[in-house]
């Protein structure tokens, strides 16, 4: 009997975890402001109740307070789980937690401009009570899964008045949200609630709005997207006055520039002064300098993703503008109100009309000669809504640059002989782009969105000349010379792509898809013929070969919020390239990591591998524009790069200031260039593969960026410390040398100040160390024998330059100040915009190129610098209706 009593007491006193628990187990807890995970760990430790759950499905980070004494376990779990959308049940000796389907729902739809119906890219949709949110994709679509009892959503976007959207029911639903532009509500104080930098996994990314682009000081009256991108750390502008970009030590062909998803191969007008992107049709610009998402591929150094406006769904309006050398127009409106919209822009320069007579006199072209140079471009986009789940977009771009010089004149012989000559020369230079895109958006369900794209792009280039020289008064023989030449190149591609956005829950944002691209290359056809009195007709053609290649890719990426402080972006981009019977396969992993440090600083890390199957060949030995786009072949492999980056980022609590610091290292393989001392015409022959060499490249450095985003006074400060190097087996004796776009230090300062409601001032100052330069370090005279019948010493002396190491010298440092002022006035339905800008305010003579010139007094050659852009004032006037 005594033994049974003792056994009963023992069973009562032993800790409960030795034996199985049940729902009547009494729980005592007193915890304040602890994560749900910590509360479960406490129960498990004290009572031996083992919990099982997935942090991907069940949100365990929400903080709670609980104070219970001898309360049944079932009641405790109800208190903990009912408000967190969690279901619990017993399986064996485990207490399993899962997300409750009955208390969550998904809200999805589009965020758009309340006035025009334009879809807003990157708008924030957020549940303040549940602390979950998302952003719209590049088509303005969002999907947010939150608790069924969520009462409202907070929606915000730069330049728009934030809105609180009430949720009246508790079911899954499509909800299209319309935001009012802040400039239509001038008395409303706009406070932006955009995602803080520390909340984003993505690093090495810059987002530009059209308003930022149009606030910048303008060159010759034209606002320019690429020139604004040049003011960002890590981005260099190349030669003075050009709008091209070089990102983190890369070459121009290593930039993937997309216009509504279609690649643009040449982005410049007027030999690089302006870009081909008319700011009137641009809605959004994203620049990726590294940490490339898996959905992008095909280039090594950067991605510039430009989205065009959709057009106003409800009203007709537009804008016309006139500047110093170009005019432009834009018109948009509904085709069927609320269903179909369009937008059309056009732009043309009239420099040929203004400068024709002046240039004709300066170049001595003769009475029948002429000169003109102009560009034009046009964009159109049509947007149609078939149903709440289906939309169709059709966009097109076309642009052309043309320059022509005709010289037609008669003159006497220079040595005074009684001969008259008639000289005729014609020179033509032209290039242009075409880009077409058809996109279909479809919403499968509130969590799955798709986009199907079919596009076509081409770039062509042509230069040709004819020369005729005829002696008019030779009695017996009419001396003559007749030459002509042509150089042309073209690249085309047609592509089909399918992309999916899937958001199973607020912790995961999954993107996946695939693409197939058909490339056609015509890499530089050269034709030359010549005939003279003492020579037979020479008619030569080179490189009529057309090469084709097929590029295929698949990708998947997951932006995964592991915990509130830990965010991970995992992805892979797999691509293949088939050309001339050779197949290249590339697997490119992508990784982005973010961890929240104390004081809400974000530590970010990224790793990415990229592959590029096309090359741009540039002949440094000639000033003729003979660049060629060519494909990787069995002899010339694709380029590869690996880039790692580490950085810190933070947005202040009031959202006014952003700061980021990044360090990066990038290695490149199979970068190519022409062999040294290449003849100008050999580069265009069919054996271009034998005329190039391939080697390695490296770039590394650090970037600092500080931006003020709110208030009447705004702007940013950027600093770049960078190295960019190349190495080729047969160049510079195999030694590493600085790449031609290597700049050690760059500083960019951009400031804007709003004065009242009508005036806005802007200023931009840039500084950079000079680019590398190769010049002769010595010379000697060599006697050339004009005839085999004369002694060698009776020939003509010629000077031969000695060139040693490549890029050992540096150009002069470059710095420049630009300022601008914009006045805006509204009268009724019309808005008048006047912009006055001053380029190179203090007339700094920045180098364009260097050459040796003989001094007439000392008869010695001296190094001479040429600068082409002095102080340039400009005025543009626009009327918006």
TrEMBL record:
Localisation per UniProt entry: Cell outer membrane
InterPro entries in UniProt: Beta-barrel_TonB_sf, CarboxyPept-like_regulatory, FecR_C, Plug_dom, Plug_dom_sf, Secretin/TonB_short_N, TonB-dep_rcpt-like
SUPFAM superfamilies according to UniProt: Carboxypeptidase regulatory domain-like, Porins
Domain (Secretin/TonB short N-terminal) ranges: 49-100
Membrane topology annotation: Multi-pass membrane protein
Organism name: Chitinophaga chungangae
Pfam families: CarbopepD_reg_2, FecR_C, Plug
SMART domains for this protein: STN (SM00965)
Coiled coil feature spans: none
Keywords: Cell outer membrane, Membrane, Receptor, Signal, Transmembrane, Transmembrane beta strand, Transport
Name of the molecule in the record: TonB-dependent receptor plug domain-containing protein
